[in-house]
Specification:
Distance between the termini: 68 Å
EC number: 3.2.1.25
Organism: Nonomuraea jiangxiensis
CATH superfamily of the largest domain: Glycosidases
Strand order of the largest sheet: 3-2-4-10-7-8
Protein name: beta-mannosidase
Number of strands: 44
CATH architecture of the largest domain: Alpha-Beta Barrel
Radius of gyration: 28 Å
CATH topology of the largest domain: TIM Barrel
Structural class: alpha+beta
InterPro entries: Beta-gal/glucu_dom_sf, Beta-mannosidase-like_N2, Beta-mannosidase_GH2, Galactose-bd-like_sf, GH, Ig-like_fold
Largest sheet: 6 strands, antiparallel
Enzyme class: hydrolase
């Protein structure tokens, strides 16, 4: 019998703090920051520069306390189960210590029956300040190099709590996942690990018992049942279930996602989860994921924690974000190593939607100490989570770390390390050993970027994974055309959040580019430099906002299309990043308020199953479906009025999961040639033959009509002249409004209807004029 203990909690500072010693109501699961905010004791940490004034929270000890009634229910055991304590805590019941914790990433179970008493009981969780603990460990084990002057490698806690180049420094404490009392007798299913095959499952079971009587263990799935008996002194068993007729689980775009309920029983205890029958392999040199024997081109987004305070991430919020990922063309998400092992809701959604999950172990961008107490904690958290997540068919890959091997090779770590440990035995020995022991059905990769062996350069693009950050940091985005990688696990380009998101997070009036949070080094200058020759220099805030958002969208679409055109040599491209944890100028496609940036719309097109792209002057057709793509490819060179100067039709057939390169029309283009259009069936792509500022666009002219429709408004724009990168930003008029499409180029005479979702009666004149309706060649 499990009883949640989520009610009646209070929170108070232990010692001096700006809020004083008085207790306030606390929400569990939750965090100190959110409780202080709810009590009106701190300002919104996401607004203006409030983040910088809240550093004292991570340097303060905190005490959570509640009372609950308990009566002897006759069970032999009563365990306090703590699914997530953040982070360094002493747990006591009725004034007596029940246990200690030092790891945000693990579940703890403390036997407390002897500490309970009939009637009222007091449960207290006393958290030590994260900074105090981490700095103490740093002093003990010696400094480790990393990108930030923060001690996150010295505490097993979500690293990005301590700030990142897209996130605030908001160092949390709290009971961040469920806490409750589990009363039981006889036999408890302590661990169930379904190791799934394509045609069955081997269910590895570990039990805990209060006595030595034999116990029968059963497992059933898809109408197949098997059992075994654990005799006196035995605690583990494997139950094999063969299901030869099971339907296979496939990644999104390759087939369905049938799931089957697996039920395991031992005595009176019962465990049930959904599983999917599939196989996952990794071709390490080419770095190809192979599902059910079929190579899969990975179209993915990197995932960061979706909120700075993870207890605030609801199932509904996850469902919205996953919907944005799948609608944006994804078949995969990479859970980045500076974050978390995510919730059951996260992986269950991925199972049902067919999203492959690449799971980093939580190590990122720094050297980590391998000494105690860290080694014991790392092993415990890895065992806990590898076992916990083994049932999920979506989980495709375990990865040892993010960029730590690259750091050791390329970031001048060796001299400051002076021979001290940096995490190597975790990535090369401990973690692969745990995966091989507990979950050999899935591949393990030591880190990313990584080229397949410790003595290889991690930046070698001919094997393994690469991260491409030369573009954002130093190069124009056309540099992506010079890369020929096997698999790109990270690459990104910044853009500001939606207008409504930026305005809600800033008190500036009027807004400026600096009104948006910017955490990246030299980020504002890089945004302007990145415009290069592609777009005009912005003279106003409104132009800055539109041009930098547009440039982000173009840059990332350029990279995705390049890497997809290399299929099957390149077999994956994972964009940095899908989401944000707060309102900020960043690399995300969906901003911290959940609003889709223009980048999202561009990636939806670039990640479509079928793509027409232009590479090195040729047109490349990408067909990532199981069906042949055949028809007549119509190519046309045009001037800026849309008039055809040269054209050619070519019958084409693109095999399933393949690409085809086609040359452009070879006729004399003439000085007026400005555009190339390529059409195949219902799909059209339009390419400019020079950068926008170099083209003599006419001033945009159009007509617009606004009509009410169910759920909002239909905005139909008809072009009189070419309209380059037409975009509609209804959130400027209604922060809750959204639009179904962005960044559409119309030739003269063409129309496009945009569907605006809104509950307000928006002014049609404002909706169809600057700065709500934008295009590159607009007059204003």
């Amino acid at each position: 019998m499990y009883r949640p203990l989520h009610d009646g909690w209070t929170l108070r500072a232990a010692g001096d703090a700006p809020v004083g010693p008085a207790a306030i109501p606390a929400r569990v699961p939750g965090s100190v920051h959110t409780d202080l905010l709810a009590a009106g004791l701190i300002d919104d940490p996401y607004r203006d520069d409030n983040e910088t004034r809240l550093g004292w929270i991570g340097r303060t000890d905190w005490v959570y306390e509640t009372t609950f009634d308990w009566q002897d229910d006759g069970h032999e055991r009563a365990d306090l189960v703590c699914a997530g304590l953040d982070t360094i805590a002493v747990v006591s019941v009725n004034g007596q210590e029940a246990g200690r914790t030092a790891n945000m990433h693990r579940t703890y179970r403390f036997e407390v029956r002897d500490l309970l008493r009939a009637g009222a009981n007091t449960l207290r969780v006393a958290f030590r300040a994260p900074y105090a603990y981490a700095e103490e460990q740093r002093e003990l084990h010696g400094e480790r190099p990393g990108p930030y002057d923060e001690p996150y490698p010295f505490i097993r806690k979500m690293a990005c709590n301590f700030g990142w180049d897209w996130g605030p420094t908001l160092v949390t404490s709290g009971i961040w996942r469920e806490i409750g009392l589990h009363s039981w007798s006889g036999t408890r299913l302590a661990e169930v690990r379904p190791l799934v095959r394509g045609d069955g499952v081997d269910v590895h079971i570990r039990v805990e018992r209060t006595g030595d009587a034999p116990v029968t263990v059963t497992a059933d799935v898809a109408g197949v049942r098997a059992e075994t008996k654990l005799e006196q002194g035995e605690s583990t068993a494997v139950v094999r279930l063969d299901v030869p007729d099971a339907e296979r689980w496939w990644p999104r775009g390759h087939g369905g996602q049938p799931l089957y309920a697996l039920t395991v029983r031992a005595g009176a205890d019962r465990w049930q989860r959904e599983i999917g029958f599939r196989t996952i392999e990794l071709d390490p040199d080419a770095f190809r994921l192979i599902v059910n024997g079929r190579p899969v081109f990975v179209r993915g987004y990197n995932w960061i924690p979706d909120h700075c305070f993870p207890a605030m991430i609801t199932p509904e919020r996850l469902a919205e974000r996953f919907g944005q990922a799948t609608a944006g063309g994804a078949n995969a998400l990479r859970v980045w190593g500076g974050g978390l092992y995510e919730s059951e809701d996260f992986y269950t959604l991925a199972d049902r939607l067919g999203l492959l999950i690449w799971q980093d172990f939580p190590f990122a961008c720094s050297a980590y100490p391998e000494e105690e107490p860290f080694r014991t904690e790392v092993e415990a958290e890895a065992r806990d989570n590898v076992a916990r997540l083994s049932c999920h068919p979506s989980l495709a890959l375990w990865c040892g770390n993010n960029e730590n091997i690259e750091g050791h090779q390329h970031w001048d770590w060796r001299a400051p390390l002076g021979g001290r440990s940096w995490g190597a035995t975790f990535y090369y020995d401990l973690l692969p050993g745990i995966v091989a022991e507990l979950d050999p059905t899935r591949p393990y990769w030591p880190g990313t970027p990584y080229s397949g062996a410790p003595d290889r350069d991690v930046r070698d693009p001919s094997t393994g994974t690469v991260h491409l950050w030369d573009v954002w940091n130093h190069e124009d985005y056309t540099r992506y055309a010079g890369h020929t990688p096997r698999f790109v696990a990270e690459f990104g380009f910044q853009g500001p959040p939606a207008y409504a998101t930026l305005r809600a997070a800033s008190s500036d009036e009027p807004p400026t580019p600096d009104s948006s949070h910017q955490k990246a080094a030299d980020g504002q200058a890089k945004l302007l430099r990145g415009l290069g020759a592609h777009l005009p220099r912005p003279g106003t805030f409104d132009d800055w906002h539109y041009y930098t958002q547009l440039n982000q969208a173009r840059a990332m679409a350029f990279g995705v299309e390049r890497f997809r055109s290399l299929m099957p040599y390149c077999m994956g491209t994972i964009v940095w990043q899908l989401n944000d944890c707060w309102p900020v100028t960043s690399w995300a496609a969906v901003d911290g308020a959940g609003r889709r940036k223009p980048l999202w719309y561009a990636l939806r097109r670039a990640f479509a199953d079928r793509l027409i792209t232009r590479q090195d002057g040729d047109v490349v057709l990408v067909n990532d479906t199981d069906e042949e793509w055949a028809g007549t490819l119509a190519l046309a060179l045009r001037d800026l009025s849309g008039r055809i100067l040269a054209a050619g039709d070519e019958p084409v057939t693109v095999a399933p999961r393949a690409t085809l390169r086609v040359g452009p029309p070879r006729q004399d283009q003439g000085p007026q040639a400005a555009l190339l259009t390529a059409e195949l069936g219902s799909l059209r792509a339009l390419f400019t033959l020079a950068e926008d500022p170099a083209l003599a666009y006419p001033l945009a002219a159009y007509t617009a009509a606004v009509e009410p429709e169910e759920g909002g408004l239909a905005v139909t724009v008809t072009a009189t002249t070419i309209l380059r990168e037409l975009a509609l930003f209804p959130d400027r008029l209604d922060p809750a409004a959204s639009v179904d499409e962005q960044l559409v180029t119309l030739l003269p005479g063409e129309s496009r209807t945009f569907h605006v979702t809104t509950e307000r009666d928006l002014d049609p004149a404002a909706l169809t004029a600057y700065p709500v309706l934008r295009c590159v060649n607009e007059p204003h």
